[in-house]
Design brief:
This protein is an alpha/beta fold. The chain has a domain of 123 residues: 3-Layer(aba) Sandwich (Rossmann fold), CATH 3.40.50.150. It is built from 5 helices and 7 strands; from the N terminus they run αβαβαβαβαβββ. The chain has a 7-stranded mixed beta sheet with strand order 3-2-1-4-5-7-6, with helices on both faces.
């Protein structure tokens, strides 16, 4: 081996270091663990553009309590907030504790329980003028029935409105199909879906 490998390089041994002001200490940020979605949760994340259109179908922001029964990663809640809905008027339900924690970071109230159990618990005592949802596809009829049981004007003049992303096979009397979504809408599954609106 050559001796030059061990020789000191012909460089300065000291370099000037800029002093940092005490006020320039970088902010310590919380390190967030990656969000892993359990397949059993049936969480199919609503793409941002689809979520934004669903919020448009729901109606303009106002003094209206809005329910998101299957909050998942918070895609629909984020779209509501981005369109000007107040976090104080959004109620989210999510049974998966890691997903619920993610949604709670958005600044909205989150009930960490199964939506079907939540609906049974509050039925007759709470009604929502607006509901927006992407329910689990395998239990879509049960979740839609539970959501409709909570839909009501709650003293407001306009109609109570529910907007949902459902399998294309879902039918309900009075449901208006707003659009048919492409088969590749979700990255995790291939299923034909549509957006429906129901007013009461």
């Amino acid at each position: 081996m050559k001796k030059s490998v061990y020789s000191r390089p012909n460089k300065r041994m000291f370099i000037p270091v800029q002093r940092r002001n005490s006020g320039a200490i970088p902010e310590v940020r919380e390190i967030q663990e990656p969000l892993v979605i359990d397949r059993a949760s049936e969480c199919h994340v609503t793409p941002a553009d689809v979520a934004a259109r669903m919020v448009d179908y729901l109606g303009r922001p106002g003094d209206l309590n809005t329910l998101e029964p299957s909050a998942g990663t918070g895609a629909l809640v984020s779209a509501l907030l981005a369109s000007g809905h107040s976090p104080n008027e959004i109620c989210a339900v999510e049974r998966h504790h890691k997903l619920a924690r993610t949604v709670r970071r958005l600044g909205v109230a989150v009930f960490e329980e199964c939506f079907l159990e939540y609906a049974e618990r509050v039925r007759g005592r709470v009604e929502f003028p607006r509901i927006i949802m992407n329910p689990p596809f395998s239990l879509v009829r049960k979740h839609m029935k539970a959501a409709l049981s909570l839909l009501g004007r709650n003293g407001h003049q306009g109609p109570a409105t529910l907007v949902a992303l459902v399998p294309i096979t879902f039918e309900h009397e009075g449901a208006e199909t707003m659009e048919i979504l492409p088969e590749y809408t979700f990255s995790t599954c291939r299923v034909r879906t549509k957006i429906v609106r129901i007013e009461a």
